[in-house]
Amino acid sequence: MEFASQKQNQLLKSDKSSIGSWDSKIKGLCNKINQQKNYYTTSSCGGRIVLLKLSPKKIENAFLFRTHEKTTLKELKKALLEAGKKYKKLVEFQQTTCILHVACKSSEDAFSIVNKAKLSGWKRSGVMSGSRGRFMVELHSTESVSFPIMNKGKILVDDNFLKIIIKEANSKLKRTWEKIEKLNKAI
Questions:
Q1: pLDDT at residue 116 above 80?
Q2: CA separation for the pair 62, 128 (Å, rounded)
């Protein structure tokens, strides 16, 4: 009964993410997992492109730009110009992949969902821990790009480089979303 109670408590909690809700690309998968009696999600991201204040420790308001959709050179340049006006330290460009944390009732349930994720292309997936009457898994894919893009308010790369990186980041996001859909079908 402990697992069912934990699941109910988790699913009743308000969303504490900075966007305040599931991103649309992973919402269907989360709903499907949460409908299964032996699983519930604790956190998720369907992939994103961000400009981030670079810091060795977690800081408030770290995002200077964030989208969970593909972006364009025009959108990114606008965000960089705005960021350069208000933030004069190192800024990092990141395109991050999907990630999903799932509580599982048993070790068999945990290994089952990890295997489905790996077969769906989520290569960095595994069982993280088993305590408090549940087994936690992290489902994670590999598509990502990260590099310093701005320092002291100045963009460090030219538009030709930005065009290449936007094309690559958008392509990786598309692959991420395809893997989300593949896992959705496998569950």
A1: yes
A2: 27
